[in-house]
Amino acid sequence: MIDNTTRPRHRGIYLLPNLFTTGAMFGGFYAITSAINSHFETAAIAMFIAMVLDGLDGRVARLTNTQSEFGVQYDSLSDMVSFGVAPAVVMYLWTLSTMGQAGLFAAFVHMAGGALRLARFNTQVEVADKRYFQGLPSPAAAAILAGGLWFCIENGYNVENIKYLVLLTTIATGLLMVSNFRYSSFKEIDFKNRVPFIATIIAMLVISFVLAQPQRMLFLLSVGYAASGPIITLVMRKRKLQGRKL
Description:
The protein has 246 residues and is mainly α. It has a single domain (10-187, 196-245), classed as Four Helix Bundle (Hemerythrin (Met), subunit A). 73% of the residues lie in helices and 2% in strands. It contains 8 helices and 2 strands, in the order ααααβααβαα. The protein has helices spanning 15-36, 40-63, 69-94, 101-124, 138-154, 159-177, 197-212, 214-245; strands spanning 132-134, 182-184. The protein has a two-stranded antiparallel ribbon with strand order 1-2.
């Protein structure tokens, strides 16, 4: 009788999670090329597709037991393209290019923030608290910019009237990525266990709203997540101070 547990896993299966990573990187690349051709709504959608694929590659690797150091490094490079370079270039071509050196500086701050965020994450991955991210994750930062762009286009806003808001938002996302604010990683959520019925209803409502108004809901959700970092950090510091007093 053959013991299937000792049979060596076919090396080709490692291609599976990396295909998702490649798809995410292509999403970022496609966003850049779309922006060059002035198809900014397509660029925003491409970045959101990249976020979905980026969220799937790690889960697929864990489900198929195909995690590897190569996959980790490849994922970081993909994130840099899709959530560091792509949002910076898209925002620059959309409106920041009309603001001279200030616009160029804002786009670079976001891109540099993404690079520093990924470098810090890679060096602290073994010692960091798995429940939290230090600094705003680069996909969430890109979601704010892509969601804001998509929202403005859908509502017909004149970009000249909001260009300074775009400038400040682009700089803010770059700084939040390198901040010390703690953001929930949601890794403590176990999808295999039972959850209260009300939680299922809430999840269904959120998904319904996102599908009905994706450009509005994705923007609001990403902004809400960005705001949660300072709140979580302040609450944790307050509890720490109260513990010291006791």
